[in-house]
Amino acid sequence: MKIQKKLTGCSRLMLLCLSLELLLEAGAGNIHYSVPEETDKGSFVGNIAKDLGLQPQELADRGVRIVSRGRMPLFTLNPRSGSLITAGRIDREELCAQRMPCLVSFNILVEDKMKLFPVEVEIIDINDNTPQFQLEELEFKMNEITTPGTRISLPFGQDLDVGVNSLQSYQLSSNPHFSLDVQQGADGPQHPEMVLRSPLDREEEAVHHLILTASDGGDPVRSGTLRIYIQVVDANDNPPTFTQAQYHMNVPENVPLGTRLLMVNATDPDEGSNGEVTYSFHNVDHRVAQIFHLDSYTGEISNKEPLDFEEYKIYSMEVQAQDGSGLMTRAKVLIKVLDVNDNAPEVTITSVTTAVPENFPPGTIIALISVHDQDSGDNGYTTCFIPGNLPFKLEKLVDNYYRLVTERTLDRELISGYNITVTATDQGTPALSTETHISLLVTDINDNSPVFHQDSYSAYIPENNPRGASIFSVRAHDSDSNENAQIAYSLIEDTIQGAPLSAYVSINSDTGVLYALRSFDYEQFPDLQLKVMAQDSGDPPLSSNVSLNLFVLDQNDNPPEILYPALPTDGSTGVELAPRSAEPGYLVTKVVAVDRDSGQNAWLSYRLLKASEPGLFAVGLHTGEVRTARALLDRDALKQSLVVAVQDHGQPPLSATVTLTVAVADRIPDILADLGSLEPSAKPNDSDLTLYLVVAVAAVSCVFLAFVIVLLALRLRRWHKSRLLQASGGGLASMPGSHFVGVDGVRAFLQTYSHEVSLTADSRKSHLIFPQPNYADTLISQESCEKKDFLSAPQSLLEDKKEPFSQVQKLFRPLSVAVDHLRSKKQQSHPIQQHVSHSTRGWRFGPKASGHQRNSVEQPTICLHRDLGPVNAGHLTA
């Protein structure tokens, strides 16, 4: 028997130990902390890293974070210290109202292993609320015949704090007729009652003023007051009576606003005002007073706001019925709210990956999902799923948690992103569901080079463009994404005419727009060949090239240039010869011009801009040939002046002009007599040259003077053999054509033409006169020259008072003409100025001296015979 008792005791001990071990193991699964309410943000709650067996630095590495449901998080983790701290001020009364203990539950998620650890934090109440009454003043009537000992229920105070900080006591101000008795209610709160201790006498005191004070047990003590006014009335001996001591009502939470829920009823056997009953709520919670409405005359209770099963499941209230004399009675009303499936499931994305590389393996975790339904029973039971045609699946974890993972390898080139719809459905009738969307981007690897839109490009830019002008834009496309598709454009370096390509054009690396760095000249180079490279920003970068042909468009920026007849450089005038016997269409000359532009900008047209004899000449529109338009008449002037314009076809057109002088004569001597009219006036800046010429003439004159003296000495020797030269009007005696005297030492050869030097007082340069051929009058024989008085002619010149020069200077004035001829040859640089076509028979003559006049018969004449060369030499400068 003793052995059996011992075994029984051992069994009990083993059971006790086993129970303790199970309790400890169960308790070890939950982490419990406590923190006072109203603490500052960041206040320490507990060392979560220590309780999880982790180091503080592991919290961030392993993705440890708080997962809460349905409200803003009240706590947060300090990753440095590994502590759980408050995320802000916590109001226990707002959070838990009167519920004790006030516990906040949440989970700690260790993301790398997808483990959840439940945590409970108890919010400790502090004395931060003062007891309050719903009314500041209470006024009621009491019959003077009220029996002493009558109890009058007073409103009780409310303190949002709990425990010792809640309302603890009531006090009533001193009054000989009333005292205070506090009753402990069955449901917890104290109910103050005022007890009539002695009879009332209305005639002695009609109104009694009392103050009811409610105090809590905090430190320091907080208190609130209620002023009570008691009006003593005449006797009323029957208080109202409710038909039921307690009313019950079940109401679905989705009833419309204003629905009559129930009706309370109380009767009073008194008559008159003493029998008139009014209804009111007595000591109800402020939230109940906001939701329900009580009709003070009918006792009908209706809802002013929607009912919510998830907020309050049962509403308890006290209804008071009072007659006209102030007697009252109370009844309790209980309204139970029935749950309706009015809350759809709530889907919370706890953790999500927004982008995943396309080469990640199946089973990669994309998101952690939490599902919750505030309804109860089947209305709160939920299921979660995604469409079946996606390469993903949902794996269920604990406590309505799911994780979304990849089911197969993703392909970005096939689909670059997914919009995953997660649907949660409850089991209510009808069932409610919620959808949430997860956007997942499949990231790319750099496996595609940029591709230009065209194999090659051609761009055009007009010449003389401004610097910085936009030329062209190239575009390339990369099938990759993000930085792998970010393209930078550049020019492949090259040289153009010895200069780097970067000195001519540049390209915007972002937009691919090419810009001109200088003004292009079509005449310098009409086109450029470039290569543009497009390179992405991947690692490693990929690139491709494209050719760009840049063509410079010609603009009309060059006027026509006249090559023939060339503009003179020595002030002389070009002369073209046209015979009087020329028929219409006779080619006089041809204007030759070129234009450095191209295309229609270089198409030239010729026109006769001005003519001294309109209608006599015509210019070929496209050839520039100057032809006679009609037969030449005797009345036509020997000298014709034409202005020919050469114009291109550009926009706007540019032009140039040239002045032609056409001499009309069948033979050269016919026009030489009128050469003086073709010579330009002397330039005022010839003084320096004239000085040099005077010096040269003086030197030559001295030599020639010595020669003359020697010659005269020889002639005087043979004085007796020769005849005296007779002075006869300046005429020259005839002599055989085969004997010439070369005054300037140059052998004369032309027997057909001769010229004489006419010297006048105002002549600065020589003037050539070509008379009709007269061998007898033009040439003098050696014999006649020997017999004539050679000095008579110079003497007659000296006698002329108008001549400012000496006789010797006048005799050798033709030498300056020869010097002018040499100077004009040196200044001629253009080949066309040095040669004129035989067919045009062009002549060029020296400048004419101002104030020229022909020699009179009385003036002596000095013969100067010069070699004029062949008649068709075509270019004579005097």
Automatic annotation (TrEMBL):
Keywords: Calcium, Cell adhesion, Cell membrane, Glycoprotein, Membrane, Repeat, Signal, Transmembrane, Transmembrane helix. Residues 824-857 are annotated as: Disordered. One of its GO terms (molecular function) is calcium ion binding. GO terms for cellular component: plasma membrane. SMART domains: CA. Residues 1-28 form the signal peptide. Gene3D superfamilies: Cadherins. The keyword Membrane applies. One of its GO terms (biological process) is homophilic cell adhesion via plasma membrane adhesion molecules. It is a single-pass type I membrane protein. InterPro entries: Cadherin-like_dom (IPR002126), Cadherin-like_sf (IPR015919), Cadherin_C (IPR032455), Cadherin_CS (IPR020894), Cadherin_N (IPR013164), Protocadherin/Cadherin-CA (IPR050174). The chain crosses the membrane at residues 689-714. The keyword Zinc-finger does not apply. Pfam families: Cadherin, Cadherin_2, Cadherin_C_2. Residues 75-133, 134-242, 243-347, 348-452, 453-562, 579-682 form the Cadherin domain. It is found in: Cell membrane. Residues 829-840 have a biased composition (Polar residues). Potential calcium-dependent cell-adhesion protein. May be involved in the establishment and maintenance of specific neuronal connections in the brain. This is Protocadherin gamma subfamily A, 1. It comes from Chlorocebus sabaeus.
